[in-house]
Amino acid sequence: MNVILPRYAGAIAESVVNEPVEVEVAATDDVVAPPAINAAATKSDGLGCHAGAAELKAAASAAGKSDILDRYATDYPKGPHDQPQSMCPAFGSLRVGLRMRRTATVLSGSACCVYGLTFTSHFYGARRTVGYVPFNSETLVTGKLFEDIREAVFKLADPTLYDTIIITNLCVPTASGVPLDLLPDEVNGVRIIGIDVPGFGVPTHAEAKDVLAAAMLEYARKEVEQGPVQAPRGGKSDRPTVTLVGEMFPADPVGIGMMLEPLGLAAGPVVPTREWRELYAALDGSVIAAIHPFYTASFRQFELAGRNIVGSAPVGHDGTEAWLESIGTVCNVARDKIDAAKNRFLPMIKAALAAKPIDARITISGYEGSELLVARLLIESGARVPYVGTACPRTQWSDVDRGWLEARGTRVQYRASLEMDLAAVGEFKPDLAIGTTPIVQKAKQLAIPALYFTNLISARPLFGVAGAGSLAQVVNAALANQSRFDEMKEFFGNVGEGHAAGIWEDTPNENVAFREKYRKQIEAQAKKRKAEEMI
Q1: How far apart are CA 240 and CA 212, in angstroms?
Q2: Number of domains in the chain
Q3: Domain of 140?
Q4: 258 and 395: one domain?
Q5: Are residues 375 and 306 in the same domain?
Q6: Residue 514: what pLDDT?
Q7: Are residues 282 and 410 in the same domain?
Q8: Buried b (16+ CB within 10 A) or exposed e, 353-367
Q9: Which of 140, 156, 194, 245 could bridge to 46 as Cys pair (CB 3.0-4.6 Å)?
Q10: Burial code of 17-27, b = ≥16 C-beta within 10 A, e = fewer?
Q11: Who wins on pLDDT, 122 or 192?
């Protein structure tokens, strides 16, 4: 598989707008008759989001989406409960598209859903236009919505602005069978990719990233099979590359590249990619590193391209040693080069871990897909991690990490629900809880220091030497706040709970005692400050 000079011409440009906009569709002379849609499978209101997951799923199957739902059920199996409590899954695929150069993103769904998704995307700094094709019950059940989407695609397909247009069906259009697969593959040289990302079929927003990444990889793979394609923006690497799958802190691919250098290898693109041409280079990798193990559909595309996949990641001492061994073996690297890479980096990682120890009991939960890797790093830093919960599913690519953790007494819970994560905090009474927003909230109510996984843990390097000590500072700083939590708990007591919740039907008898306790605490603090001022 060769990556050579471009065959697609056109100026590099990108549209950047700070707010979502509605695509005004215009009539074209190139509109085919709308496809037949099973109107009986819909309700008069177009099966609104309130209909419930079971009813929406049944309607989608009746409307011709059973193959897609069956594939999702296989790729993203649910756990012992219905599904994790995560944000709308379409947020994941939307973010992937919004991060790509020369890519237009269009949503088809209920207006409330589109508003929420665009608001959240811009809250996270998307700064890109989000297209929206509106609908009502009539346009939905008659097939006019598909016609409107098609017209919007033709209007947007400007090759001077875009390489790709991504159209996403949300819950209601998916349930009603809007057939995005009938859109043309290409308009004016612009690729057209339609995906369904219903909340009742894709369990988490992390896995929705895989839905779009896999759809683009499939399209790119078929382009490669047909002939020459675009080279990467920086040119083709003069060394065999390792494709990295999973969103990472920006410094991590650089650090991984440094560890690969003694092996005669280089770090390839990170999937999901930031532009279309990187997909070709990703497919051209000598080996695929499953840094985040839940990209099931993407891995299938890499396997179809004849690529080997290696699980886990170069995290901590043990993880880095095993990962370098696996990568070197798959790429047929000589034994002396593998040993040289280990001898160069493992002592530095061990020293970095020893220099910043963590002495605490910590529970971890999240929905990013890197929860097991974070747990490994914390344990090698000296922490005790009795529980790791991840909203993502168990796959063969995380077995190495799961086995390593379980051998050290860690309970690993895939498809963890909020209730499971909360129960773990109650059971293990950690010194620090790392988790999602409700976990952090609950832990702080219990006077336990807590850190939000996504913003405070994922936003740091995890791999190699840079990752070895990266978590210690923020973790130890949070642990040092225990005295502040104890002081606040003592001062405020049960404010916000029971009779002190602020909503009273009757005046509670305990209120007088509470006010007296509060008055004495205020007086004691005033005396303490006065004494300190006198000193």
Answers
A1: 26
A2: 3
A3: 53-202
A4: no
A5: no
A6: 65
A7: no
A8: beebebebebbbbbb
A9: 140
A10: eeebeebebee
A11: 192
